[in-house]
Specification:
The structure is a homodimer.
Chain A lengths: L13 H14 L12 H8 L3 H13 L3 E4 L5 E4 L4 H19 L3 H22 L2 H14 L6 H17 L4 H18 L6 H19 L3 H20 L1
Antiparallel strand pairs in A: 1-2
The first copy, chain A, binds a DNA duplex through helix 3.
DNA sequence: CCCTCATAAATGTCAGACAATTAATGAGAA
DNA sequence: TTCTCATTAATTGTCTGACATTTATGAGGG
């Protein structure tokens, strides 16, 4: 598995090559979480490149948070356990970057966000627990503060919806959706809510919590549609 | 040169530091797509570090496909235009990694996939075009081939659902969902479909295309629920 | 037993060199 | 003039060797 010349093309970017090899070892299970990679010197010898090149490869992996490094006697590069939190952060960052760099318009972003969230409605209604309701009601209370800045209002909105998604009890859903919502946040932050808009959002939020408490997923879906339309109206005004 | 030690903490990891600085320049708009960064030598002088360190920083950014490099006289590092394809690939990779490394069970993954997809149903019904239907019918034809391996059947299934999501006409939805579906593919690949299971899936697919053609989103949602249950039965058998 | 210090192993950083690639330049021939 | 082609300069890619820094471990003395 080591020196098979699987390189189809000529030598372009050795460090990328080596990073990819190690990456595959992690993906296919040869290296599992918290395993220690060989030292940089050993890797350089094993792959027949200089230590500088190995280091560049390792930095690539570190940038994807596939590995972490520790200095000192028992140091080295270790395979990271990919946590849901990590994946969430990484996805949110990608989403944010993509949306800011490509000038996605707010209507498209909104539509995507609410469409995804809508898919969670029934599952959330089925699996929600008390503490999810508590978290959402807490955010609603914050939103009622008229002194709240638009930005903080938006942040509270994100927290509200994150709690809703968490209520599905499905971690994959949680991180996928939470990342999407957070990625869209910069766009939402550009909105200016009039008090009337806020009141509309808040009363919808309250109705949503009630629907969730009563475990009526279909009603939750309808409320989400209202909320989407309300948000779009605010965005386009 | 400008090594005024105004840094609050000890710099552990200069290359990460510099990568972050450049990253911010890209995020806040000081550097826009296709801008050329200063040469490695200039960067090393500007930040008061060696060229090796600068290179490690650049590799980190390259690993996130924030920059690309070109050799030669007019070469250098250039800010990447973040395309939807890039983001999609990155997300799919993250999703795949997360799911394989954390041993997400197939039921959870399935549930997440269908929940997300369900959210697209109505939008897809509204915005679908003829070529989406064509693509989906083409995949259905493939799925009817009894010689098809389980793996190819699964790949065709992914293509079918990707076409469905594309039918929403919303690029953000497309890449979010396509990445999720592809991330879950390794798990789905472990399923073995009996012919009876395939027949059930195929007839559901046909009904879904019909519902999409007729633009009846609510029916599409119901069919998706059936498909989810069918898939879960296959998975647990 | 505890404290201190030397040692070793590993990553982090640096400086300088050379190789490879590529666009621009300029000289020479038609 | 215009085309061709070798030269040149700029830039990334790689290698080598060295030193700095961090950290666990163990030996020695109190």
């Amino acid at each position: 598995m080591s020196d098979n010349s699987t390189s189809p093309q000529k030598h372009t970017d050795l460090s990328a090559d080596i990073a990819e090899r190690i990456r595959q070892d992690i993906l296919n299970g040869s290296l599992v979480a918290d395993d220690r990679l060989p030292s940089e010197s050993e890797l350089s010898e094993a792959h027949g490149v200089s230590r500088a090149t190995v280091r560049e490869a390792l930095k690539r992996l570190a940038a994807q948070s596939l590995i972490r490094t520790k200095r000192g006697a028992t140091g080295g590069a270790f395979v990271n356990r990919q946590t849901f939190e990590d994946a969430y952060a990484q996805m949110a960052s990608t989403a944010k970057l993509l949306i800011t760099l490509n000038e996605v318009d707010i209507a498209t972003a909104c539509q995507a966000r609410f469409a995804l969230e809508r898919g969670c409605a029934r599952l959330a209604a089925k699996n929600r627990q008390e503490h999810h309701l508590d978290a959402m009601r807490h955010e609603i209370d914050r939103q009622k503060d008229p002194e709240l800045s638009d930005e903080d209002f938006c942040a509270s909105d994100v927290a509200f919806h994150r709690a809703l998604v968490d209520a599905t009890g499905n971690p994959v859903l949680s991180w996928q959706l939470a990342a999407a919502v957070e990625g869209i946040e910069p766009l939402m932050n550009m909105l200016t809510y009039r008090q009337r808009d806020r009141d509309a959002v808040i009363s919808l939020h309250e109705a949503m919590v009630d629907a969730l408490e009563a475990r009526v997923g279909s009603r939750l879906e309808i409320l989400m549609d209202y909320l989407r339309d309300q948000t779009l109206r605010t965005a386009l005004s």
